[in-house]
Design goal:
Distance between the termini of chain A: 12 Å
Distance between the termini of chain B: 15 Å
Number of domains of chain B: 1
Number of strands of chain A: 5
Strand content of chain A: 25-35%
Radius of gyration of chain B: 17 Å
Number of helices of chain B: 3
Mean pLDDT of chain B: 92
CATH topology of the domain at 52-128 in chain A: Thiol Ester Dehydrase, Chain A
Strand order of the largest sheet of chain A: 1-3-4-5-2
Shape of chain B: elongated
Helix content of chain B: 10-25%
CATH superfamily of chain B: Hotdog Thioesterase
Structural class of chain A: alpha+beta
Oligomer: heterodimer
Chain lengths: 130, 139
Amino acid sequence: MNLTAGQELPELMKHPTTRQLVQYAGAQGDFYEIHYDQAYAQGVGLPGVILHGLLKAAFLGQLVTDWLGDRGTLKAFEVSYRGIDVPGRPYRCRGRVTMVEGDRVELEVWGEDPDGQRTTLGSATVEMKK
Amino acid sequence: MSATTSVVERLRARIGVAAPPTEATVEAGHLRRFAEAIGDDNPRWKTEAPPTFLVALAPASLHLAEAEEYGKGWLNGGNRFEYFEPVKVGDRVTATGKVADVYEKTGASGSLLFIIFETEYVNQHGRMVARLRGTAIRR
């Protein structure tokens, strides 16, 4: 497949639930209460429990590895959390190729809430197999 | 204000000081539970770590009790992973973390404290497999 700047990655829809947040808290070992205790979350000024930033990073990581398959290797991956996301609201992962230079490909990735707000921005660098 | 200033000063004194390393083995059951939790059913993750798995293997940030004197809660500002070698089931990984930077920013909605963590992950062959940079925010 010929890669060129501007190409979009197949999007990935995620449907996070509070159950998934608890599952993720256990799998990562991050037991900060804002991810599973509604009263605690509201007590620190949040609307309720929110997704772990690193869970959103994992979603965007999957977007990249699903697209990449065994065609290359992920070299760098960066995410910046710009807004909160709550369970029960679908999370749409998107991305596109921003630069192709020899075997090196740069990607822009982002996560959108149902209002189209980009709550997570990121980038990835992959090295394609020769 | 002097109380919060001293928190920042105390934390800044820790910049560059490496925490004691932690060691962990990449276990098949842990990989499976992690892949299930993120909802990624790629069979590749039965034997290999998905891109963000290292944060589950060893703490990605140090526990800084004194930072909790600042503001009322933590936020994750961002994470950056660099990958050098694949991480496979059975690998024994040593993680060494440090505080890379601490600074305060004042905006329209008040003051925020930024703590930048850096963790290096080295495998049983002494090869660096990944480096992680994370921004933790107290608000």
